[in-house]
């Protein structure tokens, strides 16, 4: 029987209480990892951790990824519970969609801070610990919106494009320390957020997808597992699209 891909490893996942983050946590635990779920909603993170198997397998912690001290505390709690962080998944995100004409400065700052600064905090703090161990993997969640831009998402598209640049720069800095940094760009993935969009908008997006269906959170989680595991041991600075072929 094959050894689980993440056996004995500690993984930290931000935005881990629901959606793509929770799906990644489920896949990681199935492959032997012990996970720490970070979320602004601490109660939801704790509940998700219980559903994953409780304190021997998972912990849920409240974390504001825009706050350096919260990220420090998150990584310290992970080490205290399960050992040094081997895998860091920067997934936390929000949307504040509006056209440029109507978008407020606060809406722009909120989205850029959570996505871009939050990913920077997670990448910076985790990589500093990983370099001491001479190994580790970081997976950053970008978006197709960071590749092509989306109407009403100047804040979100800018932040998600920034994550790509951050990932590549960090990968170059950390490669000789044995730390790999990669990113995923999901397209239309079936989540509570996307299913709440107007039918007209959903149909328009579906028309752009050669595979003629939305992706599932488990399909993003599988790619995260690949990047987190030794299956991708010679990959760093890469951006993998999970889009069903949309905007090739």
Automatic annotation (TrEMBL):
SUPFAM superfamilies: NAD(P)-binding Rossmann-fold domains (SSF51735). One of its GO terms (molecular function) is 3-oxoacyl-[acyl-carrier-protein] reductase (NADPH) activity. Keywords: Oxidoreductase. The keyword Glycosyltransferase does not apply. It is an enzyme of class 1 (oxidoreductase). Its EC number is 1.1.1.100. The keyword Acyltransferase does not apply. Pfam families: adh_short_C2 (PF13561). InterPro entries: KR_dom, NAD(P)-bd_dom_sf, Sc_DH/Rdtase_CS, SDR_fam. Residues 9-192 form the Ketoreductase domain. Belongs to the short-chain dehydrogenases/reductases (SDR) family. This is 3-oxoacyl-ACP reductase FabG.
